[in-house]
Each structure stands twice: as structure tokens, then as C-alpha cells.
Amino acid sequence: EVQLVESGGGEVQAGGSLKLSCVVSGFTGDGYAIGWFRVAPGREREGISGISLADGDTFYSNSVKGRFTISNDNAKNAVYLQMNSLKPEDTAVYYCALDPEGVVVPDEYEYDYWGQGTQVTVSS
User: Fold this and answer.
1) Is residue 106 within 8 Å of residue 50, measured between CB atoms?
2) What is the per-residue pLDDT across 20-35, written as a single tens digit (0 to 9) for each?
3) Measured between alpha carbons, how far apart are the two ends of the chain, in Å?
4) Cβ(50)–Cβ(102) under 8 Å?
5) What is the spatial distance between Cα 105 and Cα 75, in angstroms, rounded to a whole number?
6) Burial tier of 48 (Cβ tally within 10 Å: 0-12, 13-18, 19+)
7) Do residues 50 and 36 make contact, with C-beta atoms less than 8 angstroms apart?
8) What's the CA gap between 39 and 94, in Å, rounded?
9) HSE on the CB side for 106, CA within 13 Å?
10) Cα–Cα distance measured from residue 102 to residue 56, given in angstroms and rounded to the nearest whole number
């Protein structure tokens, strides 16, 4: 069974930082992609970042570019999202998702497996 487990969420003041982790288990391929998505209150799911373990390709949405950094640790089957200069509008539930084909895009329909989400709250 494929499982993705996010951690690292919490509450932080504006301007602060958090680092989210996504640990993958039960997936036998090695050329997959991990996307980070978020759902803010009253808003649709937004794809904010992703990384392909097949070719290292990454993407960032305009809303997080320059503030968030995605990275991976193959030995730990983990992908991280370092979030700096956080703003109140970053408040959301953050999810990681896996695309077995290794294509890194912000389209949620490309991803087959999802974590349970972790809450990030940024206070002003």
C-alpha cells in the first residue's frame, strides 16, 4: 500500500518559517514526482510546488516562488518544502501527492496518491 505522510505543519507568525516533510512508503518505482498542494479556507486546491525524482525538474507557483524551496532525500524517501517569509495568506492545509509517471505539474489530476494533509497557520 502506497502511503504519503506529511509533517511539519503548525502555527507561525508572519515572516516566519516552517519546513514540511513528505515521506513515501510502499511505492516501488523510483522515477516518480511529488507535488505539494494546499487548500485554503473557501478556496480551491492550489498546486504550489513539485519535484520529479526522474529528472530533478521542479516547479513553483507564482504565489510561493522565491519564498519556498522544494528538495528531496532519496535515502529517506522524503521530499521537503522549506517555507520562508510566510504570510497570512499561506494559511491552508498542505498536501503532498505522488505522480508515478514522474511528471511534475501543478495539475492535481496527474497525481494518484495523496497524503492526509498538515495544517499551516500564519498569524499576522
Assistant:
1) yes
2) 999 999 998 778 999 9
3) 40
4) no
5) 24
6) buried
7) yes
8) 7
9) 14
10) 10
Q: How many CA within 13 A on the CB side of residue 73?
A: 8
In sequence order, what DSSP letters do the residues of 46-111 get, joined into one string? EEEEEEETTT--EEE-TTTTTTEEEEEEGGGTEEEEEE-S--GGG-EEEEEEEETT----S-GGG-
To which residue does cell 513539485 refer?
A: 50
Q: Which three cell numbers stand for residue 35?
A: 507535488
Which amino acid is it at 34? I
* Residue 115 DSSP one-character state: -
In a 10 Å sphere around its CB, with 0-12 CB exposed, 13-18 middle and 19+ buried, how is residue 5 labelled?
middle
- Render pLDDT for 42-92 as a digit per residue (tens, 0 to 9): 999 999 999 999 889 999 999 999 999 999 999 999 999 999 999 999 999
Give me the residues paired with residue 119 across strands: 93
Amino acid at 83: M
